[in-house]
Amino acid sequence: MDISTTRTSTPTTDDRLAEILANPGFGTYFTDHMFTVEWTPSEGWHDARVTPYGPLTLDPATAVLHYAQEIFEGMKAYRHEDGSVWTFRPEANAERMVRSSHRLALPELPPEDFVRAVDALVEVDQRWVPDAAGEKSLYIRPFMIATEKFLGVRPAQHVTFMVIASPAGAYFSKGVKPISLWLSTDYTRAGRGGMGAAKTGGNYASSLIAQQEATAQGCDQVVFLDAQEGRYVEELGGMNMYFVHADGHIVTPETGTILEGITRSSIIDLAGKLGHQVEERKFSIDEWRDGVTSGDIVEVFACGTAAVVTPVGQLRWAGGEAGAADGEAGSLTMQLRQALVDIQYGRADDTFGWMHQVC
Q: Which residues contact 42 (CB under 8 A, 6 or more apart)?
């Protein structure tokens, strides 16, 4: 994939950029450039380019607006102490996008081209990568949308893949604290044969009403059960879950209808290195409640790209609640979190080969 680069004639000033990076928030500010490449059946992937960031012009009949044929990824770039810039397991994001493409009947972007596209944008906009202080990073959003002007219900014959980036502050600006969860009994995230394992906007759109309910009940996040039996824990609105038992082994819900998180996979490997057996299996809501009550479950935590790892506190549902697991201040949870963050920011040896240097 040959990539052309056209730099903006009006880059963000150094003073303004310093102001943004001092308090970037999340998804509020965007870098000076974006990456774009297009696909058609006759030409394949073509016209790859980095250009100044700006609005898209879409016909009202553009397919993605009507049939939601779109997928995306979420990843980060980190600045190390020596000033170099690295991404975390970009090939894993690329491979997951291939799987999502297959489920949404979109063309597959070769993983090596995915990584090159991300690298191209991050290299051009590397000054937007914050220093590591306070767990700041550059959040990267690759996405693919159906851009054919056509209202027929079939896979689009024109598709666009893009990458944009936004500086991000720490998810927990006041320190890591346990989140409270609302158990949704009215809504499910995905069913067997559905899109649960694909990273597509429809999964997130369908979770919003349940998240709205959780917020109304005073909880931070919503947790979903399986669609078939309504018994088994799946995931939160945007994070995977783990349950630490008193004997040290860990259980995480099996995949198939849930998103195979990159952080989830990394936690499994890290926990194994620390001597903890990790089971991927069905895990019922009754097992959660009974385990916390009996003391067999000593820690519960969730993980994702934005929060990395967060302890889980109280679980609530209509007519009841379960208290937080009473482990020693989430000791393993925080140990795993620190180990992962230290690798990402270059403070610990990357024995897994997860980090990819961009510049």
A: none
